[in-house]
Amino acid sequence: MKKHIVMLPGDGIGPEVMDSAKMVLNTIAEEFSHSFTFESQDIGGIAIDRQGTPLPAETSAACKKADAVLLGAVGGPKWDSNPSHLRPERGLLGIRKELGLFANLRPIKGFEKLLHASPLKEEVVKGSDLLIVRELTGGLYFGTPSERRDNGQSAVDTLFYSRAEIERIVDKAFQCAKQRRGQLTSVDKANVLESSKLWREVVEEKRQQYPDVAVEHVLVDAAAMKLITNPSQFDVIVTENMFGDILSDEASVLTGSLGMLPSASLREDGFGLYEPVHGSAPDIAGKGTANPVAMILSAAMMLRHSFGLNEEANVIEETVESILNGGFHTADIKAAGGQKVGTKEMTQKIIDSI
Amino acid sequence: MKKHIVMLPGDGIGPEVMDSAKMVLNTIAEEFSHSFTFESQDIGGIAIDRQGTPLPAETSAACKKADAVLLGAVGGPKWDSNPSHLRPERGLLGIRKELGLFANLRPIKGFEKLLHASPLKEEVVKGSDLLIVRELTGGLYFGTPSERRDNGQSAVDTLFYSRAEIERIVDKAFQCAKQRRGQLTSVDKANVLESSKLWREVVEEKRQQYPDVAVEHVLVDAAAMKLITNPSQFDVIVTENMFGDILSDEASVLTGSLGMLPSASLREDGFGLYEPVHGSAPDIAGKGTANPVAMILSAAMMLRHSFGLNEEANVIEETVESILNGGFHTADIKAAGGQKVGTKEMTQKIIDSI
Ligand SMILES: CC(C)[C@H](C(=O)O)[C@@H](O)C(=O)O
Ligand SMILES: CC(C)[C@H](C(=O)O)[C@@H](O)C(=O)O
Asked: Which residues take part in binding substrate (chains A, B) (predicted)?
């Protein structure tokens, strides 16, 4: 199989972990006789520094022509006081919108061997294996008007959803649930918001098409509680953009393995952008200590979701698990025992085992 | 001191825990020679059943004439499929707005003796003692338009804040921080939302007036993580209505003592409505097993914030703590050891010790 991949390393530890993913993908290409070609483009802070904008036209164009996109991370204190249009995050929001990546998939699973690094008690977090499906191109982060009013003395943002936008993400979530344990939790604030009422209506309609999926509705405030008190009760959670932003980050720290969590942002046709959940971590950038696992697992998600290469994806995932089970971990896992390794060493161990 | 208190017992376990609070307040009145008079009014589901509306005019009028209001809980499955204007929650949103209760204060503290009931590891949650200050009458839950569009095929909600609305809640939070450990965390999504940018500006301006309070800004998604990984880093958190809704519920389960958490919803002049954080718990209503502590501690907050009766409030709080330290707990605390008691017994123990 021949595939062209655009890499957007971005800021902070982005370039380091991107190197790791590229090395792993090259190994997979060799082992399975594929041909992956790579092209690197700027996004975020580095794009602002080099090209004066967080999302250069050349970057967008390259992504649109690619078979898939890998993204490292964007942002850092250097650009924090920039005006809105010159902030690294704009690059990320922009590329999601331009590519139509409406479905953000965030699987969260505890690695048995790392559960001791969780802030939760082991008996609470044990067995947790959930997937958050977040709507990514609608809602409050994109609605208009979003502006100052009354000479800057007030401000407004708009939460807007069309039925079609809700239908496609809910559909995606049902499909995921069907392939997993057949349980879907839809999160909204239907006791207060109009958009949430529409959301709930759509879920109720769609469930007719998926009679083998069990559906429950949970209010966002209750969901924020349940994720902590009983995370293993969830299979697939589907929710709108902002609730998904908050809940998926909340969920990402439950298993103690934030540095291991990948994500996929998908379009209807399977095209996607893949990025680790952890951010740019400017404090450890360039030190060679960053955890490359989330980026490597994001590459595995790319193989599965955009290229249909399930076996290759499985090989990466199983290899990572076996290395972690072998006791190797990077500095982000604060726990006694095991052997601490750097970014390069961790990557090499994974490559050697593939 | 003579004070007139309106009680809104509401639904589920509301009436039971309200009885407990009333008994404790009567004991305090006797011991300290105050005269508290009580009047009960309908709100929520019971108001719908009896008077056809979740917030009867008589209830509003009574609250406006009172010195303070105690609320039990609203809601239950019975009214879940009602149309918007006939939902119990409307009563709660309505009374907050009508009384101008813009500042919701939610103190969250771990009771040493109950920390073992926390889903978090004891070393993570230990020492946590934070106050969430949530804006309660603005933002997405009240903004207009909030409606269906395109023949019901789309929906919109509006997040609106004026500078004045932000200033008064931020001021309140700074005052709280000053009286506590002098640390304020303002939570927003200023990398995306216009309203959050205005919010951050106001916080930056206000901090000039409170040079002895240390201020940090945290994005809402990061805040959702940090509450779990390191809750004891926070002193006072201030945030807008919806973020506050989600984060305060998330925070409420950290210490394992949800049934112990009170809240105050205040106006500028100190008038307030006081309610437990736990909901109406319809599954255990009428069984005599509900935990009355959150309601009793809400009454203590009333004595302190609306009546200025600090000593009396302290007596209640210290008594509750000593009873809990004595090993007595209601059925909501799932843990070995101690002695399980019912609502009435717990209340009596507290009264006997006052
Ligand atoms: C950087 C920011 C705009 C972004 C978001 O909120 O969507 C990030 O928090 C994420 O979750 O991917
Ligand atoms: C019942 C609901 C409208 C309310 C809110 O979200 O404000 C509740 O969740 C709360 O937090 O007091």
From this structure: 96, 106, 134, 221
